[in-house]
Amino acid sequence: MKGKIIIFSIMLLIYPYFNYGQELFQKGKGSHIEASHFTIGSSVDGGSIFDLGVIFRHRLSDKFDAGLLVDYRSVTCGNNIPKGFQSLQGKGLTIGPVFGYTSVLSNPRWGIRSSLSLRITLSSITQASESRRMALAGYGMDIDIFIFRHINLGKSINAFPGIGLFASITHFTGHNRDEYGLSRIYVPQKRQTYFESAGTPLVSGLLFKVPVSFKVFRNKRLALEPSYWFDSYNSVNGLNGLFRINIRFSF
Length: 251
Known about the structure:
The structure is a single chain. The protein is mainly beta. The chain is built from one helix and 13 strands. The protein has one helix at about 1-15; strands at about 30-40, 50-60, 65-75, 90-105, 110-125, 135-150, 150, 155-160, 160-170, 200-210, 210-215, 220-230, 240-250. Strands 1-2-3-4-5-6-9-10-12-13 form a ten-stranded antiparallel barrel. The two termini are about 30 Å apart. The model is unreliable at about 10-20 (pLDDT under 50).
């Protein structure tokens, strides 16, 4: 009975922090869980992959929010690798704080959204019975600024299309560098050419977003955020383009 009272008391204390449903691009407190990517699968030759990236944010005031980024990746090579490299497996964990700022301009149809994230990546590669501990594979920083327009599409649907700039810098330590793509470091664009290698590449470019937010029940909202990123990393013919969709739940 005492344990139930303690749990109930804790729920009463944290309830005010989860009793808002404001969209991330609007004023007002709220909490936000965003799934940036999710991959799971296996191949006939015995290979497998699991990759999940999640960001949690909580609005500290009408404009500022803070949270945590977590990305976990596990990849196992199949049998189509050179002899002697069977049971090759790689794991990686990226974690770090995220900060955001939203400003609605004097004309409430327009606003500015900026975000900053700091991250470190730990990784390990295991071959057969030889197991290695997780070690620092890289660290970096991501920043972007986004100008958007608020469009009301109905009583419960809002859109926030806009354009912005982004920059991402990552330092690779070279730990667990491999040629099979087992050990990759998270970057917000999720371009798969970011293999671990010594160096500190800086990536910058343009981004376009069209977040669409739906009211699902009471003050809870679900947002789909299609975005297109342009950058010049490893590009021979000019800018590279990458499309992705984030899913965000606001409560």
